[in-house]
Amino acid sequence: MTGILGEILTLDDNAPGTGTVRMHDRFDTSIEDLWSAMTEPDRVARWIGRIDGDLRVGGSFSARLTSHWEGTARVDVCEPHTHLVVTMRPGEEDETVFEARLTAADGATDLLVEERGLPLETISAHGAGWQAHLEDLAAHIAGRDPVPWVDRWGELAPTYEAMSAEVRATR
């Protein structure tokens, strides 16, 4: 099983009480294949959940994730194979921004994922959740069955809670 992939940060002094979950991972596949797994609805459904709607820049879609998150989202940036920005629950009180950057690296692809604007009191759950999702993405890419999402989330949650407590203590 993968070690801890993520960080919990507070990056925006203009949004007190919020923070960012940042994940780094390397996938043994081409940048085109990883992009496809992250953007084509039939492949997205195999590792994170269902998405339906207008997936063009400016378009809105609905999502139902294995983490039980449900809601609408808007595509803000889509630069094929390298950069994706999506606003989750645009215009709502709990709006956040998801960003993914892909970089080809020695026959593999590096992925940087951030979700910004998360409340500090619940950010640890998002950290554990994103890591579990990225592990499911790795399983999909490798052709393996993912571990039940909630089981892996439960294993990761205490570590991310400790990381979150450190960040809150320094604020």
Features:
single chain; 171 residues; alpha+beta; Alpha-D-Glucose-1,6-Bisphosphate, Chain A, domain 4; 8 strands; 34% helix
Question: Topology, pairings included?
Answer:
Elements: E1 6-9, E2 18-27, H1 31-39, H2 41-47, E3 49-53, E4 60-65, E5 70-79, E6 83-88, E7 96-105, E8 108-119, H3 123-142, H4 149-170
Antiparallel strand pairs: 1-2, 2-8, 3-4, 4-5, 5-6, 6-7, 7-8
Helix pairs in contact: 1-2, 3-4
Brief digest:
The chain has 171 residues and is an alpha+beta fold. It has one domain: Alpha-D-Glucose-1,6-Bisphosphate, Chain A, domain 4.
Query: How does the overall form come out from the CA principal axes?
Result: globular
The CATH architecture designation is: 2-Layer Sandwich
Q: Runs with pLDDT <50, length 5+? A: none
Q: How far is the first residue's CA from the last residue's CA? A: 32 Å
User: SSE string, helix = H, strand = E?
Assistant: EEHHEEEEEEHH
How many extended strands? 8
Structural class: alpha+beta
The H-level CATH homologous superfamily, spelled out, is START domain
Strand order of the largest sheet: 1-2-8-7-6-5-4-3
- Under the CATH scheme, which class? Alpha Beta
Rounded mean pLDDT is 93
Percent of residues in β-strands: 35-45%
Instruction: Fill in the CATH topology.
Output: Alpha-D-Glucose-1,6-Bisphosphate, Chain A, domain 4
Domain Activator of Hsp90 ATPase homologue 1/2-like C-terminal: 28-141
InterPro entries: ASHA1/2-like_C, START-like_dom_sf
Pfam families: AHSA1
Family: Belongs to the AHA1 family.
